[in-house]
Amino acid sequence: MLEMIRKQLMRRYQLKRNGIMTLKGKLCPRIVGKLERIGEQAIHCLSTYAGDGLFEVEEKNKQYVVNLGRKTCGCRKWEVTGIPCSHAFSAILYDGGDPEDYVDKCYTLEMYKKAYDPIIYPMPSEEQWIRTKHDKLEPLNQG
Asked: What is the pLDDT of residue 1?
């Protein structure tokens, strides 16, 4: 069973590495899609700048405090996901920023590449293993 998992991971890592080579931009494609959907929701938000990176954002008769410097919003979605919520998105655009610059670095292509960088090396079958003079190790008796 472990051998099957190792082989699956070896294939998966290599497929991911090949796929990553074709990607362009700063963020992973799924995150770009999420940001686009959040941007559509941000149309319904009205941002008011208070100063020092702080905004009051109104949406559906509710108000949220957004702090661009600390990457926080009163709805807490930004802190939980690392992706700006619609309120933050609205404030970022009002401030003249790019929402992609406010996404947590764990969603960048650079980090995605690092996650799949390690190679899972192929292994020969047991008959091809180098024999040693040492006795075979037996599992420890847990009883």
From this structure: 85
Mean pLDDT for the stretch of residues 120-124 = 90
Give residue 135's pLDDT band: very low, low, confident or very high (50, 70, 90): confident
Q: Model pTM?
A: 0.79
**Do the Cβ atoms of 69 and 63 come closer than 8 Å?**
no
CA atoms of 68 and 45, how far apart (whole Å): 16
From the list 68, 62, 35, 72, the residue with the least C-alpha distance to 49 is 68
Alpha-carbon span 89 to 4, nearest angstrom: 44
| Four-residue CA torsion sign, 11, 103, 27, 81 | positive
Q: List the alpha helices (DSSP H) in 95-137.
A: 109-115
Q: If you average pLDDT over residues 115-137, what whole number do you get?
A: 88
65's CB contacts (< 8 A; 6+ apart) are 54, 55, 56, 57, 73, 74
Q: Under a CB-based contact definition with an 8 Å cutoff, are residues 11 and 107 in contact?
A: no
